[in-house]
Amino acid sequence: MTTSKHIYFAAPLFAQSDLFYNQHLVEKIRKIDTELTVYLPQENAGINDKTAYADSKMIALADTDEVLKSDLMIALLDGLTIDAGVASEIGVAYAKGIPVIALYTDSRQQGADNLKKLKALQTPAENQFHYLNLYTVGLIKLNGSIVSTEDALLEQIKLFLEGSDLHDL
């Protein structure tokens, strides 16, 4: 499959664990098709070498330019909240009609049919589930999809590259 598609990979990149996971997942995405270009911001030393200097405008211009060149955005939603930079990048993608496939692996989303967990929602401070900002989630769902596993993410990328509409997946 020759695609010549450009993917923007939006993810937190400040902890060593983030950097390793991002690289791990991008390597899997790049193996889908050798013609695929994946922009991983942490690989852009011009703005993300934290021993050097890049001001806010340099970072905003560089990453926004890459978002706007993209045919698809992959966004990682895991963490205490959706990373602020990721949320901003999702907003740019939505405004420009660039589809987003988001990965949300938080284990607290499991058990949605567990009656004890559901009943606990009636007790203050006993929410057994994780909350994501619904505005950002809505922007993704209006122009893409959210999956909960790496395999589902890779499958949706393949389907997108084959021409499938993310709204139908």
Automatic annotation (TrEMBL):
Can the keyword ATP-binding be found in this entry's annotation? no
Which InterPro entries does this chain map to?
A: 2'-dNMP_N-hydrolase (IPR051239), Nucleoside_deoxyribTrfase (IPR007710)
Q: For this protein, what is any one GO molecular function term?
A: 5-hydroxymethyl-dUMP N-hydrolase activity
A Gene Ontology biological process noted in the UniProt record is: deoxyribonucleoside monophosphate catabolic process
Going by the UniProt record, its keywords in alphabetical order are: Transferase
Question: Mind telling me which Gene3D superfamilies this protein's record contains?
Answer: 3.40.50.450
- What protein is this chain from? Nucleoside 2-deoxyribosyltransferase
Species this chain originates from: Enterococcus malodoratus ATCC 43197
What is the phylogenetic placement of the source species in the record?
Bacteria, Bacillati, Bacillota, Bacilli, Lactobacillales
